[in-house]
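Q: Is it fine to ask for two folds in a single conversation?
A: Yes, each is treated on its own. Send the first.
Q: Here.
A: Result:
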Amino acid sequence: MKLIEVKREYGLNQNTFYGWLRENQMIVKKITGYVVGPNALDGMETKENQRVNEDGEILITTQVIIDNQKVPQLLEGYEKSGLPRLYSNQRQESEGKRNSTSELEERVEFLEKQLYILTEQLATYVNQNNREHT
């Protein structure tokens, strides 16, 4: 998985995430992009891409990829870094929406149960009232 995909999938703050990776020398910034640094985790490697621009020149770009099984280890180290703003605002907002949706669903379920109880009580009352007046 490309590091940019890890960042997107887990809602990481790009500046914090890449800064942490560079600071810990897991990746190194080069002219072509990022390459594996001296302290890279096992399972991290540099992927080289080539493309041809409009002038026919071959452009080489590099990205760091990580074995999917090593992503949890990477995230654990990142979360233990103690850095502020580990996650993007979008992730925090979506988690907040998810939590409020869950709370709303629980509240609706509770109210539905109360409505059912009240309906049963009303039916019992109506039946008793009808017996008394007939």
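Q: Second one now.
A: Result:
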Amino acid sequence: MIVPPNGYAAVIGHPENPVQWLSYLYTKMPARHSPVLQYGAYYEGNQQKLAFSQAKYRSAFHAVFEEWRDNFCGMIVDSSNERMNVDSFRFPDYSQSAKDVREIWQRSSMDAFSSSVHLDAMIHGSAYVIVWADHQGQPLITPYSAEQLVVQYKTGSLTEIEAAALFLIDPWGRQMATLWTEKYVYDIPPGVNDWEDGKLTRNPLRRVPVVPFHNRTRLGKPSSSDLRDIVPIQDAINKTVTDALTASEYAAFPQRWVTGLEIKEDSNGRPVEPFDSAVDKILQAEDPTAKFGSFAAADLKNYVTLVSMLVQHMASISRLPLHYFLVNGGSSPSGESLISAEAGLVAKVRERMLHFGESWERVIRLCFAVLGDARQNAYTMETVWKDPEYRTEAQHIDSLLKLKQLNVPEEQLWSDAGYSPAAISSFREMRREDARAAAEVQRLGPQPEKISGVGATPQEAKAARMAYKIPQGNSGNANRKIHEAK
């Protein structure tokens, strides 16, 4: 956790210099008990174990259930994130742009890190991407967590950022910070304790190079995590399962009782257990008035019923199909029932794609701004996502063949089939190679004789046609003789 140097108090009013901006933005960083950090712990399954047990049960079962976790939070976020994959970017007004964008994308390893951005945004409510030039002057895309970076929007704007600050701790435990505004960049090198000793340089982009990825954005409200409404239900499930585990230890086995026996005590006056009970031992007493019996074992089905109800509530709120939770006994629906069951989840993913796609377009425009390219103003650009709906290969290909009947270009059909831009580029080169090979075979192969032409006599034309005619079997030979006789 970043700790500001002593003496830097919260700024009241609009910041006027870099130190005031750093002090102000630091107050917006998540605190130790912030929900941002709590949601991350729940996603990882690190919520407090046996939190609702009585003290004696916690001390008795801590070693037994220390690694126990029944965590649905990770599955709820992962089920959406695994369906969100950026495929490419479409530029209607600029040709030959897809290759340039793909090179920038691959150089920054965003094939992998883009998924991490979506994941952090859905867990914490926000994630951030910084676009800056590397040592070769090429645009570099770097993602950061909401635990490290904060932004301040311009008054009255939902998209224009006035300032952003990155607070980091390097591998040697030294604090460092960077502030961006439209006019300047202010760096606090590692190990520098006074924020006044930072380095001020001009911002060549003349814009803040930070793009936020906000999850579940509301007008005038902060973004929120997908786990905000899930955490209370997860706590209830943890409590119920904890009770069931405790009951399974103390009450799931039938307890025996005996009456009519004299209670013996030890030298300290404590009762002595009369029997050493075990499965292979018999209880007996000489006193004819002694009676033996057993209590009924506790029924744990009530706990199962309660957990099932809580899981159904969780599925309804998260829009996750019940077969993800194995509520239906572990069997998954098939065919149209599967598509219907996952309709809510797919709609949820498409809504996230709408907002995240807009952010990725701003990232690409910033990349072209680093290069000084006119495409930094390509506002008609679109983010192309892979299909979030799971279908069988036969269903998918059949739908593509029907789209081909509508004269949809083959390149678009390849993209819809799930092929990457690199694969599609390879397909184009393969088709050119096939065309060149076919032309070469046609040139080197036997050529058909001339059937008719200028200067050919009628007899020569007839002989050429007969020689070029494809044999048609015995029936064809007989018919040809009849016509030749005529």
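Q: Anything structural to flag on that second result?
A: Two points. The chain is about 40% helix and 15% strand. The longest strand covers residues 161-169.
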